[in-house]
Design goal:
alpha/beta; TIM Barrel; 11 helices; 10 strands; 8-stranded parallel barrel; Xyl_isomerase-like_TIM-brl; single chain; IolE/XylAMocC-like; two-stranded antiparallel ribbon; Xylose isomerase-like TIM barrel domain-containing protein
Length: about 300
């Protein structure tokens, strides 16, 4: 690749509470939300995600003031869902989704990142359910996601971006392609997380080139291939793998960022590219220097 990168003018770079070690609405091991907002702005990011609902203020007026005072803008909210379990989970799902979607809409964002539920416990490694869905569960997942997309679009004007994620049923290349082929391209798009996809053996550039019209959002992340090899060989759950440092700052891991960003730019549409480096838990002073270095690195890539 040329040492002089073309400007990635369709890519809008941001970061998220995840890059500050935030996984939960409240947790004594996490930095206070004010510090996250201060530091994400100081590190040079313009866009943020809401993170776990309840971490940032949920009153739209207050959150709007806090974000605007730091010259930040919101790109998306995030929800977890278990739609493969069928219609009986719809009411509980919608109760959660509607809260997050309302706040996301109030912040002027247009995207809702949807993460499938884990099939094994993040901390204990206990199996919650089988790692493979039955044909009926695949049908529930597809129809439930389409229903969610329609409701979120009609009521809140948001598009859903389904996030393939380690230790969920939408993880590997095979599962991601099966999910995409089973869902309506006009309703359901992907949040491609480059780190999670690599963690599960996928090739982000190939996915962008093959299913480009379904890529609506990016999470930029890298995995340490050496630690990943150990994680895979031992069957380590995702939570402990993160504590081992399986997610690392660019350009120290895979996939290489430049080819992914170039492929995304080639789609010819505006895309958010939100930096996420899973680091739960982490020392409070660790995230900011990494965030600054990562922003500098991405500028060097043209983003």
């Amino acid at each position: 690749m040329s040492s002089v990168n073309p400007s990635l003018d369709r890519i809008r770079v941001g970061s998220a509470p995840d890059s500050w070690g935030v996984w939960f609405p409240e947790d004594p091991q996490q930095v206070p939300w004010q510090r996250f907002l201060d530091e994400v702005a100081q590190a040079g990011y313009e866009w943020i995600e809401l993170g776990p609902y309840g971490y940032l203020p949920t009153d739209p007026a207050r959150l709007g003031d806090e974000v605007a005072s730091r010259n930040l803008k919101v790109s998306a909210g995030t929800v977890f869902t278990s739609l493969h379990r069928g219609p009986e989970v719809w009411d509980a799902t919608w109760e959660h989704v509607s809260q997050v979607a309302a706040l996301t809409q109030a912040m002027g964002a247009e995207n809702l990142v949807v993460i499938p539920s884990f099939w094994r416990d993040d901390k204990t490694a206990e199996l919650i359910e089988d790692s493979e869905l039955t044909p009926e569960q695949w049908r529930h997942l597809a129809s439930g996601t389409e229903r969610l997309a329609r409701e979120v679009r009609e009521r809140y004007g948001l598009g859903i971006m389904v996030h393939p994620h380690a230790d969920t049923h939408i993880d590997t290349e095979e599962h991601v392609e099966r999910f995409l082929d089973a869902t309506d391209r006009d309703l359901v798009n992907l949040c491609l997380d480059t780190g999670h996809y690599a963690y599960c053996g996928g090739d982000s550039v190939k996915l962008i080139e093959t299913y480009g019209e379904r890529i609506g959002y990016l999470h930029l992340k890298q995995v340490d291939p050496r630690i990943l090899e150990d994680v895979v060989s031992k069957g380590t759950p995702f939570g402990p793998a993160v504590r081992q440092g399986v997610m690392c700052e660019p350009p120290l891991g895979v996939p290489a960022m430049e080819p992914v960003l170039t492929a995304a730019q080639g789609l010819g549409v505006d895309l958010f590219a939100i930096v996420e480096q899973d680091m739960y838990p982490c020392p409070p002073d660790q995230p900011f220097p990494i965030a600054e270095r990562t922003r500098r690195f991405l500028r060097g890539c043209g983003a």
